[in-house]
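Lab notebook, bench 4. The sequencing result for the construct came back, and we need a structural model before the next group meeting so we can plan mutations. Quick request posted to the team channel:

Model the 3D structure of this chain.
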Amino acid sequence: MNFKDKKVSVIGIGGSKRSGFYTSLLLKKEGAKVFLSEIKKEDEFKEEIEILKQNGISYEFGINSEKIYESDIIVPCPGVSYKNPLILKAKELNKKIIGELELSYSFINGDVIGITGTSGKSTTTTLTYEFLKESKIKSHLGGNIGIPLSSLVINERDGIFVLEVSSFQLETIEKFKPKIATFLNFQEDHLDRYDDLDEYLFFKKRIFENQDEKDFAILNYDDEIVRNLSKEIRSKVYFFSLNEEVEGIFLKDKKIFININNEKIYVCDRDESSLIGDFNSKNIISSILSSYLLGAKIEAIRDVLRSFKGLPHRLQFVDIINGITFINDSKSTKPESSIQALLSFPENKSIIILGGSKKGTNFRELCEVVKKRAKYSIVIGATKDDFIKIFDEIGYKNYIPVNSFEEAIDISLDIGEKGDYVVLSPACASFDMFKDFEDRGAYFIKIVKSKKDEKNWLYAFLYFYNSLFAWPSLAIFCIWSWIDTLWKNGDLHKIFDIFNNINSSNVYFYLYSKKIFYKICKTNFLCLFLTFNTCLYTFFKF
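Done. Here's the predicted structure in token form:
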């Protein structure tokens, strides 16, 4: 697509991903006359504004003015819905509308692996990329994962592009055609943007829209809605499954097998990966298949699985305090994701932190699973009352409403026991309290670490206290007890042997003080003192 001398308006700088910002830079590089319009104030975009100035890109902040429509082409960021009045008016004016994904795709010279679904996209996308990279295949990681495709194609246009693709991005595609398109799962989500689940599914499955028989579709066989999409797809369909020996890839007896053209290839044992949960098993096997189809080596796949520790905010290990393990799963912004998180831990061993901003989601199924599997539930945020209402209706009493994460973690430490898991898996977006799920997860980690530091300071004090008083006293007590035994047995010559090089006056003083100390010991005062200190130290330490 030729943009030279074309007038293009970009709507939105692109939130934390800055997709609109990079789209503007890309278009400028291609010779377009670019205008960026952002409704937010310019205070939080100082660095970006400086770069826009340096590149001669005009802009406005704090308003979406009529100037947008002076351009022939309009590029909305993914966050701008196709139902947005700005877009509807642009259509009325017969303006060309092209999304960031579609625009950036037009510059790619290599193949694309597109990965969509309600949950698990980021982990699957990252694993696929890592398998290819370890196999020495030129590849790039980007898309909705936080690296806009527009930022990649400014400088890189060859190789394999492994992209996380959202329904928002698929709203505006025309020619986007991935060589491999993976559909991980379909669950209730984004009902604040779409009228119903049918509309949501309509845009999700557009990822297959332009594929032909030379391309591949990888579908979740265990998800009925996704499995049935095979009837609508023109490309070659492969499945992934944890339950059936499908054509594609499957898990059997904790072993992963690729099954193509009736040839089974053993890949590795599932336990070679540290990623927990059945949902991660699906992420793993789907990413293995897509990368394998484009040349990834089995040994490289094994090496990556053994070393890959997962992504931040996705069942991420944070720390252990008093034997209680804290897990950050802030990325779980949907009930289905939180259900999967709960299923990853032993029954009645998890304390789950739920709640966040509202987006029209039904929590009843999640609450039923919480009742069955969670020891306690801590509810927070704008949806706190929604959870409480459902918990009361289903007869679940082990919930605790709180007003802050600090309070949530303090209570978790009070009610938790050694071997328990405290899991932040909110089942909600974060916008009621935080900028995004990453901000929420980072804050959760910060609070947990601060609680651990508090314990460490206490440990340090007690260690110093015991080192300075208790343990030396214990050592002295043991020595005195040994000498006391010699005293009682009349083995005075042994005592004098010990003090062979000490003058007699000091020995006499020593023997006299020994009698006094012995009388104190008879009171058991020292024993009690030592026992108290040792117990105190041990209690706080463990």
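Residues 287 and 396 are 38 Å apart (CA to CA).
Will bring this to the meeting.
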